[in-house]
Structure to design on (168 residues):
């Protein structure tokens, strides 16, 4: 009787251990993203995003009046900035420039496109202005940051490896 009880008690434990170990391989394929109001800590969204997915931040540069598109790729608990485009207001394709010129171009303006970047981030703070009207697209969800924190607010984006229970 005692042996039967031990065997019956062990079966669910073994199944649970096998299931949890199979979920462990899933953990490496996702990144946990949290978007919060930087001042209050209010959570705007929190979700597991599959590695390889793109996050796209669009905003208007108030100094040069150009639409800006920043593309981040979700990878192993971080976001990698992979490309930046300052669109041409005439609708033409902006000139391609090398990644080493990106810092200067943010300050000097003009249309350009940089690809081939690999700049890792785990924390990003987005400042919100009326003119810039930043929007963040995460999977199929588009978040207008002005609606979330208002003019002059700030949004904090944190990327990290997911906890086991966040995926369950």
């Amino acid at each position: 009787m005692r042996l039967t009880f031990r065997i019956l008690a062990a079966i669910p434990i073994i199944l649970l251990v096998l299931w949890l170990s199979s979920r462990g391989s899933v953990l490496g394929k996702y990144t946990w993203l949290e978007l919060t109001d930087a001042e209050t800590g209010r959570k705007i969204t929190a979700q597991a995003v599959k590695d390889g997915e793109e996050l796209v931040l669009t905003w208007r540069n108030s100094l040069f009046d150009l639409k800006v598109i920043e593309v981040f790729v979700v990878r192993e608990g971080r976001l990698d900035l992979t490309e930046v485009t300052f669109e041409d207001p005439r609708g033409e394709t902006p000139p391609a420039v090398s990644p080493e010129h990106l810092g200067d171009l943010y300050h000097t303006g003009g249309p350009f496109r940089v690809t081939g970047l690999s700049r890792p981030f785990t924390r990003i703070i987005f400042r919100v202005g009326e003119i810039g009207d930043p929007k963040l697209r995460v999977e199929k969800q588009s978040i207008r940051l002005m609606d979330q924190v208002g003019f002059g607010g700030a949004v904090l984006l944190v990327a990290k490896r997911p906890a086991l229970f966040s995926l369950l």
Observations:
- The first helix runs from residue 2 to 27.
- Residues 21-25 have pLDDT under 50 and may be disordered.
